[in-house]
TrEMBL record:
Domain Gamma-butyrobetaine hydroxylase-like N-terminal stretches: 60-137
Family: Belongs to the gamma-BBH/TMLD family.
Organism (species): Petrolisthes manimaculis
Family annotation (Gene3D superfamilies): 3.30.2020.30, Clavaminate synthase-like (3.60.130.10)
Name under which the protein is recorded: Gamma-butyrobetaine dioxygenase
Cellular component annotations (GO), alphabetically ordered: mitochondrion
Lineage of the species this protein comes from: Eukaryota, Metazoa, Ecdysozoa, Arthropoda, Crustacea
Coiled-coil positions: none
Length: 446
């Protein structure tokens, strides 16, 4: 089985990659393995075939048994076995654990001639060298092991070819505003590819100058996919039509940052909102309200992981129930607010205070959950995190509803005539079109 690491992953690595070729190392190790058969058990000692830096401050160590283990750098540094870190005579630990930088990264990561994992650290200008015996690593790394390479295997036919997602905040999104004219997107394949590229990389892409006709949104979608029908129909209208027991979106109240339909078995991946009517803020002195805002949930999650790892852990591991009952129907689903895959990469955000049900978790999790939820929400709503603008008639915003959170400020429904038409699309359909346009682009290039 071949093992490929994505360019995305490798580009994120901040330290040089030193990988001992599996075969070369095996040849070199052959005598060592047989010589180190454990006399008592008769089982061969584990051999490290390669070690390389992986993302999330991790060293990925691959053993000859095809087991891989992800060792966090902080754990490795804390458990250095050198004579400065463990007293040779008493074997008691000398490391000042709380003084270590939890985000520590090594200068280098290699496998020594005698098969040890060697790590060099820089600490306040001093060099500290750690050596880890493969038997020791294998023993203490049991809980970091995964069997086989599957979780980090990258589908070279597809994902490998897509660009890196670009996590954004207010400054970076405005520096590179993801927008395009309706005409360009509708009339040329190049335009459509570029628009889908914006949507893929930023999780949000705007179209300008979309004719303000009802159901135009469906024509836009037909350009690359088809509408995903939901309990709200093929499309839905965000207008002020309060119906008792219906939906807060259909009033003038503010909608805080959220993702839609977390109560479904799978929340829709792509959402589009087309502005048919709105009061133009440029034409009045006072803010008419109904201002749209967006924030990159993946960036907020990354921030939390790097700065508040305990909160990140709580939000990635505590399932929360989302439910809704309206117009005679009911739905309910259980999701962690932040969903990750086996590699620890963010895959989905589920966040909507309006549909989140009372937390049901062990008592000791309740306070940490509220603490983590608050940290996430504070970062989310910081002005520097968000993209905020007034949609004007003719604007259409598409966003990845499992990554980008959206919301709107309140407006006075008696004064503001606002009408957005919205719909959902299966996101893999959009990405499928994106992939095929990219493939076509390559095949037509000389
Ligand atoms: C919604 C919603 C946004 C808006 O209906 O779920 O987020 O700008 N609407 O009204
Ligand atoms: Zn040490
Ligand atoms: Zn919404």
């Amino acid at each position: 089985m071949s093992l490929r690491y994505s360019t995305q992953l490798l580009r994120r690595l901040a330290i040089p990659l030193v990988q001992t070729s599996r075969q070369a190392h095996k040849r070199g190790k052959a005598t060592m393995v047989s010589a180190s058969l454990r006399a008592d058990l008769g089982t061969p000692s584990p051999v490290i075939t390669s070690a390389l830096p992986a993302h999330h401050l991790t060293a990925k160590v691959i053993f000859d048994s095809n087991m891989t283990a992800d060792f966090k750098y902080i754990w490795l540094r804390d458990n250095c076995q050198c004579s400065k870190c463990v007293d040779p005579s008493t074997k008691q630990k000398l490391v000042d654990t709380p003084a270590l930088d939890v985000n520590i990264k090594p200068l280098s990561l290699t496998i020594s001639e005698n098969g040890m994992l060697e790590i060099t650290w820089s600490e306040d200008g001093d060099i500290h060298k750690s050596e880890y015996d493969p038997v020791w690593l294998h023993k203490y790394g049991q809980s970091f092991m995964h069997n086989s390479f599957e979780s980090d295997m990258v589908d070279v036919d597809q994902v490998y070819q897509r660009p890196e997602m670009e996590l954004w905040d207010r400054t970076t999104i405005w520096a590179n505003f993801p927008e395009m004219s309706y005409k360009e997107m509708m009339e040329s394949d190049n335009g459509l590819r570029q628009w889908l590229d914006l949507f893929y990389r930023f999780g949000v892409a705007v179209l300008r100058g979309v004719p303000t006709e009802e159901n135009k949104i469906q024509e836009v979608v037909k350009r690359f996919a088809y509408v995903k029908e939901t309990q709200y129909g093929l499309t839905f209208d965000v207008i002020n039509k309060p119906v008792e027991g219906s939906h807060l979106a259909y009033t003038g109240v503010a909608l805080a940052h959220h993702t839609d339909m977390n109560y479904r078995e799978k929340s829709p991946g792509m959402q589009l909102l087309h502005c048919l009517k709105a009061n133009d803020p440029k034409l009045s002195d006072t803010d008419p309200g109904g201002r749209s805002f967006f924030a990159d949930g993946f960036r907020i999650a990354r921030w939390l992981e790097e700065n508040e790892p305990a909160a990140y852990h709580v939000l990635t591991s505590t399932p929360v129930r989302f439910a809704i009952k309206n117009e005679g129907q009911q739905y309910s689903a259980l999701w962690p607010i932040l969903c990750t895959n086996a590699d620890g990469d963010m895959t989905e955000v589920h966040y909507n205070n309006r549909t989140m049900k009372p937390l049901q978790a062990p008592t000791h999790v309740v306070t940490p959950f509220y603490h983590a939820h608050k940290l996430f929400s504070e970062k989310l709503t910081e002005q520097s995190s968000g993209l905020e603008f007034n949609m004007v008639p003719g604007d259409l915003v598409a966003f990845n509803n499992r990554r980008v959170l959206h919301g709107r400020t309140a407006f006075d429904a008696t004064k503001v005539d606002r009408h957005l038409q919205g719909c959902y699309v299966d996101i893999d359909e959009a990405f499928s079109k994106y992939d095929s346009l990219r493939t076509k682009q390559w095949s037509t290039q000389p």
